[in-house]
Amino acid sequence: MAAHGCLLSIPFKPKPQFPRPIVSSETNARKITCSSITAQSQSAKQHLLSLISDQDRGLKTQNDPKKRASIIEAVDALAGLGKDTITTDGPLSATWRMLWTTEKEQLFIIEKAPFFGTQAGDVLQVIDAANGTLNNVITFPPHGAFFVRSTIEIASPQRVNFRFTSAVLRGNNWEIPLPPFGQGWFESVYLDEEIRVAKDIRGDYLIVDRAPYDWKA
């Protein structure tokens, strides 16, 4: 008897094909643009930090107009890249340590501190945007400090108004209160996770980095 094979017929179901997402040329352009801006900012930031690296927080720049002009040009270039950013929100709050400035009063204290038998340590801006406070601090290790307390209010995406409320000269186990003086504003024209660059009402410049510690009064 001949054996007959039985062929089982199974219907074929094609694998479903899902349409690939369409990425517009506008989206690609936005990614490229953002990437380019970030690269430009990092390059401009490193150039600025290189320029100030040997300036002793600004003391050497005071007598070098050419160097000062180069640094300010680099600041303006970085500010141009950050012009549309918001720098007055949460990341503004920090203990900021001065790297370089044109502020004559601070540079005078740093320079003349040895005449009073001490040395200036870190120079700080301690900002708490949420609570509206700012402390400008010059430390004299191990125990001394001169600090000026201020209140602040956010005026625009990059501008902060401030008003001095008190000042204190502190030593080891002693304090001398000083009268408050002045008000004004500063603009953080560039801010990232490492540094902040600011201009103020008097046309002075300040470059700071995030201190590796929190200063407490």
UniProtKB/TrEMBL annotation:
Report the PANTHER family cross-referenced here.
PLASTID-LIPID-ASSOCIATED PROTEIN 4, CHLOROPLASTIC-RELATED
Task: Identify the keywords attached in UniProt to this record, alphabetized.
Answer: Plastid, Transit peptide
Name this protein carries in UniProt:
Plastid lipid-associated protein/fibrillin conserved domain-containing protein
Where is it predominantly found?
A: plastid
Origin organism is: Rhizophora mucronata
Domain (Plastid lipid-associated protein/fibrillin conserved): give its ranges. Answer: 43-208
A GO CC term assigned to this protein in UniProt? plastid
Supply the InterPro entries for this chain.
PAP, PAP/fibrillin_dom
Q: What family classification does the UniProt entry report for this protein?
A: Belongs to the PAP/fibrillin family.
Q: Where in the cell is it found?
A: Plastid
